[in-house]
Amino acid sequence: MSAPTTPAVPDRVELVTTDVAAVRPFYADLLGWTYTDTTALLDGVPVADLRAGVAPARWWTVFAAEDAGAVRATAAGAGARLRGDDVHDPLGGCFRVRSGVTAVAPGPGRPCWYEYMTLAPGDADRFHTDALGLRATPPPGVPDDSYVLLTADGRPVAGRLALPAPLADVLPTGWMVYFAVTDPDAVAERAPRLGGRLLVPPRDVPTGRVAALADPSGAVFTVLRPAVREGHR
Q1: Residue 3 lies in a domain
Q2: Which helix (H) or strand (E) holds 133?
């Protein structure tokens, strides 16, 4: 199975939930979103799509590709099941792939990172190379394959985390969507008061400070205050 000639990269997110109206106030308060029809906005700019669907509620990572049909076909050849533009990989994760989508600009309250959570890191890396053309690249200083960057043309576009036992008990396998926030601790404290759940309390990781949450419908996501790089203070 040959990888796509042009990598598919994650650049949009969609929430599928059983009750869109019920979760809108949660994200409006937590991330500052407003809405028009099925689109969430921040400062008038689209940041996510919210759609009604069957349970379980889930945040979907949407990959952009020059030829979405070809990527779906390649994913199927690598063992995935297809349902419309939904791709269900052989490891339990799922994503969507489309052509002609517009990336969301970075900033607080917006999707800022994508990470694949798995108990089978080697199989996940092979699938993402074969299906999406993404190369698994260990960051400098990482002693094993517990975490790798998924790169497209040498540029990191996502991560892959081998779930340790404590996290595997609370976080689902598959793609995790990260939203940028200025204060993860404050967000983690506020989410339960809005009907959500705190799954993983705020903690520092190499990419910054994170907390994992579930919204009132059960859709899981992570908030992140990115680490400040040396020379960018």
Answers
A1: no
A2: none
* Packed helices 68-77 and 121-132: angle between N→C axes, nearest 10 degrees: 140
Residue 221 has pLDDT above 60, yes or no: yes
b/e map 37-61, b = 16+ CB within 10 Å: eeebebeeeebbbbeeeeeebbbbb
pLDDT value of residue 12: 92
Please indicate, yes or no, if residue 231 is contained in any of the structural domains.
no
In a domain, 2, yes or no: no
Taking a C-beta distance cutoff of 8 angstroms, is the pair 60, 13 a contact? yes
Tell me the CA end-to-end span of the chain in Å, nearest whole number.
44
pLDDT(3) > 70 = no
Q: What is the CATH number of the domain that holds 91?
A: 3.10.180.10
Cα separation, 86 vs 206, in Å, equals 31
pLDDT at 233 over 60: no
Query: What total of structural domains would you count in the chain?
Result: 1
Rounded Cα distance between 205 and 49, Å, is: 28
HSE (side-chain half, CA atoms, 13 Å) at 110: 16
Residues 170 and 1: their CA atoms lie apart, in Å, by 34
In a domain, 65, yes or no: yes
> Which pLDDT does position 231 carry in this prediction?
43
Q: Is the pLDDT of residue 48 over 60?
A: yes
Confidence band for 184, pLDDT divided at 50, 70 and 90: very high
Domain housing 33: 9-226
